[in-house]
Specification:
The protein is an alpha/beta fold. Helix content is 24%, strand content 27%. Strands 3-2-1-4-5-7-6 form a seven-stranded mixed beta sheet.
C-alpha cells in the first residue's frame, strides 16, 4: 500500500467508520480490496455488503444496474463511496437505495486539484487510479441530499456526509 493511501485509510476510519452502528445495513460502492468491509466486520457490523466491478466484492456489478443486481429501493442505512464518484455519477442511484434519514459517505478529489493527484500517483505516493476521472464533482453542488458535513483534506480531497 502506498504511503498517502495508507494514511488516508486510517483517517477515513476515524472520520467515517468508527461511529456506524453495528445494526445498520451498509453498502460500500467500489469496495476494491475490501479493507472497509474487513474493518466493519471486525467491529461487529453484520449487515455489510461490498459492491464492485470485480471480485472479491459480495456483489459483482455496476451500481448503475442496482435493480438487476437484486438491490432493493430504500434498503440501506449507510452507503460508502470512497473514491468512486469521480468515475461515475451515481448520486441518483444512491438516493434510490438509501433509506430515509440514511447517510451517504463520500470521498473524492477536489476537481481543480486532480492534476496534483496524478503527480502523486506517478511518484508512487498515492494509489493508481483504476479508471479515468470523468466525473470530477464539487460535493457542495450535489442536490437531492442534505449536506451534513464536508471537509477538505490536504487541499486535494473532499470528504462529505450527506443525509437523505
Amino acid at each position: 500500500m502506498v504511503l498517502l493511501s495508507n494514511y488516508a485509510r486510517k483517517k477515513k476510519i476515524n472520520y467515517f467508520l468508527k461511529n456506524i452502528p453495528k445494526s445498520h445495513h451498509i453498502l460500500e460502492i467500489g469496495c476494491a480490496d475490501g479493507w472497509v468491509g474487513e474493518y466493519l466486520k471486525k467491529k461487529g457490523c453484520k449487515n455489510y455488503l461490498g459492491l464492485d466491478l470485480s471480485p472479491p466484492a459480495d456483489i459483482i456489478g455496476d451500481i448503475m444496474d442496482w435493480k438487476d443486481l437484486g438491490i432493493k429501493k430504500s434498503s440501506f442505512d449507510v452507503i460508502i463511496a470512497f473514491e468512486v464518484v469521480e468515475h461515475v455519477d451515481c448520486f441518483k442511484e444512491c438516493h434510490n437505495i438509501l433509506k430515509k434519514g440514511g447517510k451517504l459517505m463520500v470521498t473524492t478529489p477536489i476537481p481543480h486539484m486532480d492534476w496534483m493527484m496524478k503527480i502523486l500517483e506517478l511518484i508512487h505516493l498515492n494509489q493508481k487510479r483504476t479508471s479515468l476521472h470523468t466525473n470530477l464533482t464539487y460535493l457542495n453542488d450535489i442536490s437531492n441530499f442534505r449536506l451534513k458535513e464536508i471537509k477538505k483534506v490536504g487541499m486535494l480531497s473532499q470528504w462529505a456526509i450527506f443525509t437523505k
